[in-house]
Amino acid sequence: MSHPAPGRIVGRFLTSTVAVAALLSGVVGIANAVPHEVAQFAAGTEGLDPALAAAYTLAEQQAHAEGVELSITSGYRSHEQQEWLWQDGLATYGSPDEARRWVLPPAESTHVSGRAIDVGPQYGAAWLEANGNRWGLCRPFDNEYWHFELQTSPGGVCPPRLPDASFR
Predict the structure, then answer these.
(1) pLDDT per position as a tens digit, 63-119
(2) All structural domains of the chain with their residue ranges
(3) What distances in angstroms separate CA 31 from CA 18, 52, 153, one per listed residue?
(4) Which of 138, 126, 134 is nearest to 9 (CA)?
(5) pTM (2 d.p.)
(6) Which of 55, 70, 164, 87 is nearest to 123 (CA)?
């Protein structure tokens, strides 16, 4: 199936249930704007903020249409999962300050609130970094090529990246 060029998908974008929900919840701020009957979210979006799930789904569809492999390697994490990662980071890096460069405690992690995704493979992440702003997706940290969050409105400019998560 062929897909139109990015600039020509606006009409379809605005009529898509998922896309409208993404616009409503991501731009206007209406919580839970995605209808429960939407079953077309990409794999790995369970537990994510509906706007992030919708934006990523659209981005993944476009990546695949362009022949780029892209998938979520980590999305929503429970408090317990993030605590385990935090404790592992402390053991691995030896101090909270050094661990915070790579992993945050549960109370601070955007994965726990469903507002972050990690993607792969690396070339897919590079594609998302170059194109993700079309759906509001941005890479917030210099040291994590795989980490993305909704940080702008669709088509907007991503904010400057931070060196790492400890700068939040």
Answers:
(1) 999 999 999 999 999 999 999 999 999 999 999 999 999 999 999 999 999 999 999
(2) 6-76+114-167
(3) 14, 12, 15
(4) 134
(5) 0.78
(6) 70
